[in-house]
Write a structure and sequence with these properties.
Elements (H helix, E strand, L loop, with lengths): L1 H15 L16 E6 L2 H19 L14 E8 L2 E7 L5 H10 L17 H10 L6 E2 L6 E4 L2 E4 L17 E4 L3 E2 L4 E2 L1 E5 L3 E9 L4 E10 L3 E5 L8 E2 L7 E11 L9 E2 L10 H7 L4 E10 L5
Parallel strand pairs: 8-17, 12-16
Antiparallel strand pairs: 1-3, 2-3, 4-5, 5-6, 7-10, 9-14, 10-13, 11-12, 11-15, 15-17
Length: 303
């Protein structure tokens, strides 16, 4: 038995016997400053990420833990010793809305108004209007959705911020019907009726900011009614989970006065993967009318 214990002790020493940087502590920190080390930078980041989550739980901070990603951590220090990576990271526990409010509170005069018809209907902008009496202009990252801009400040976005950009809204002149509760592989149709003339676009937004174009620039006139896909030619759209247990998505019926260019986004009828993200999408439809519906795909619960 003694020999076994000594073997385990020796193994423990052999694993942890390496140099560490002077700034890398071995005791618990009282702030959301985290540390990680590993044989690669990626390993060190993963360890720092887990350290951050553990600290948030211990401090009882109400943050959507599962949504924190490596990109949400800021690397404050980085060092390599004896082929081992060490990093010190920081994590800002303020929500994006809190950061926006901190910037707004410093303003003496009213900022530029936001006039994007989609943005001002989101919960974020409704909250800002309640506090400040107008919609402050926010610039969007139209490439990778990594940040928003406000009065010269860049505010980093996390996966948790996706809800800020999704909205359920009903325009009284655009009727949109989509089944809101679906099972995997279930088929469904989208029904749209519009009093507006113009061009109809049917778009779906997924949980991870992806934009998928189902129908684009369909000309409307005289109170049009459309079922998509055409039930005479198709059995319907198919709900898929793609490995998730539950997945939410938003369907939008968008009517614009002029045709819009959606070529930079994923298209239902193309296998090509496009990089167009929701920031670019919101700018594209800034002057359009829309109605939207949220749907959920979930495995059928066994009794």
């Amino acid at each position: 038995m003694k020999k076994s214990i000594l073997s385990l002790l020796f193994f423990s020493i052999s694993v942890f016997a390496y140099m560490i940087p002077s700034w890398y502590p071995n005791n618990e920190t009282t702030t959301i400053t985290s540390y990680g080390d590993g044989e690669s930078l990626e390993d060190a980041k993963l360890q720092a990420l887990e350290d951050t989550k553990d600290q948030l739980v211990k401090k009882g901070i109400l943050w959507p833990i599962a949504t924190i990603l490596q990109n949400d951590l800021s690397i404050e220090q980085e060092e390599v010793l004896e082929n081992r990576y060490f990093i010190q990271t920081s994590f800002d526990t303020l929500t994006t809305e809190d950061k926006i409010n901190d910037i707004m509170k410093q303003q003496v005069f009213k900022t530029e108004d936001e006039n994007n018809s989609y943005l001002i209907k989101t919960q974020l902008f409704q909250n800002l209007y309640t506090k400040y009496g107008y919609y402050p202009h926010i610039s969007l990252d139209t490439n990778q959705n990594k940040y928003i801009g406000l009065l010269g400040n860049k505010i980093s976005l996390t996966k948790a911020d996706k809800d800020m950009f999704y909205v359920v809204f009903k325009d009284e002149n655009i009727s949109l019907e989509v089944k809101q509760s679906l099972f995997p592989n279930e088929t469904y149709f989208i029904n749209v009726e519009s009093i507006y003339n113009g061009y109809l676009n049917i778009i779906q937004l997924s949980d991870n900011y992806d934009v998928v174009v189902l129908l684009e620039n369909k000309e409307l006139s005289n109170s049009s009614s459309i079922i998509f896909p055409n039930f005479k030619e198709s059995d319907g759209l198919v709900a898929t989970l793609d490995g998730y247990e539950v997945q939410n998505f938003y369907t939008l019926a968008i009517v614009c006065e002029s045709q819009k260019d959606f070529s930079g986004f994923n298209n239902l009828f193309s296998t090509e993967i496009k990089t167009g993200k929701i920031g670019k999408f919101i700018e594209t439809i800034s002057d359009c009318k829309f109605s939207s519906v949220e749907s959920t795909i979930e495995q059928e619960k066994s009794e």
